[in-house]
Amino acid sequence: MITQIKLQGDSAQDAHILFIPNKTIECEELLQESGFYFEDRIKSFQLDLLLLEDDLLSMELPENFLHYTLQDDDAYKVMVQKSINRIEKTSGLIKYKYAKGNVSAQIINRLKSDQQRASSEQANVVSFDAEFDCLIMLDRNIDMVSPFCIQQVYEGMLDETFGIKTTMINVETKILNSKVEEGKSDYTELFLNNEDFLFKDIRGMSLSGIGAETRKQMKEITEVMKEKDNPTNITELSKYVNKVKSMNIAKRKELLDYHINMASYIRTT
């Protein structure tokens, strides 16, 4: 980065630097040594917690355990602590905090110390009811076996086969639709979250369980489609149309086709 700034020549003095998720002491020292440290033009953006689901926040730090274990880089501890502080600022102080592992215990102790310090300094501040009663933190090294286990549920198999990145996968279109001409290698992006009402129901199932659930839903769709000739007047027709809309038949059938085809592909690979 410093080399790129130098290549800008005289305009380098107007450069602005934005660190994500935060600036480190090492980076500041390097900038000072190079003569490019201008405090008013160096900012940090705390991009820590990403909303992946309506009930799931992620820091998306897949290599933090590697850096800490092999490179003795514990910068992520501060990031985790700040992210919990943000949750408590918006959702209220978490009353019960438990830790399993040395790193988790360190972070919890820091949080408690900061909370006690803030309480003594702001004794008259009125607190509001917290949305969360309990926080449980676990170190990765208390369970080194689980990451090596074979996936048995549909969501895990999708991750092993296609690679889920921030709830999204890229799947070859010919896998999703067998009618695609052979030789075409375009890809389709699919979002795997609770907005996909079928995936919400089957994400934790085995492949055999998925078969039973998809057959059940296909039967429901077929029965509704058979009713299209039953209405004999405007009132009955209006009720039928509302029923089809509420079930979102077209979208449901498309999702069924996608997941049936992906499950069949996983089963045969």
* CATH architectural type of the largest domain: Alpha-Beta Complex
> How far apart lie the N and C ends?
43 Å
CATH level-four homologous superfamily name of the largest domain: Sec1/Munc18 (SM) protein, domain 3a
The CATH class of the largest domain, by name, is Alpha Beta
Summed over residues and divided by their number, the pLDDT gives a mean of 84
Strand portion, in percent? 5-15%
SSE sequence, one letter per element: HEHEEEHHEHEHEHEHHHH
CA-atom Rg in angstroms: 26 Å
Describe this structure in words.
The protein has 269 residues and is α/β, with parallel strands linked by helices. The protein has 3 domains: 2-44, no CATH class; 50-146, Sec1/Munc18 (SM) protein, domain 2 (Rossmann fold, 3-Layer(aba) Sandwich), CATH 3.40.50.1910; 154-268, Alpha-Beta Complex (Syntaxin Binding Protein 1, Chain A, domain 2), CATH 3.90.830. 49% of the residues lie in helices and 12% in strands. The protein has helices at 2-6, 25-34, 64-71, 75-91, 102-121, 154-162, 173-176, 197-202, 207-226, 234-247, 249-268; strands at 17-19, 42-44, 50-53, 56-58, 96-100, 134-138, 168-172, 187-191. A two-stranded parallel ribbon has the order 1-2. Helix 2 (25-34) links the parallel strand 1 and strand 2. Helix 4 (75-91) crosses helix 5 (102-121) and helix 9 (207-226) runs antiparallel to helix 11.
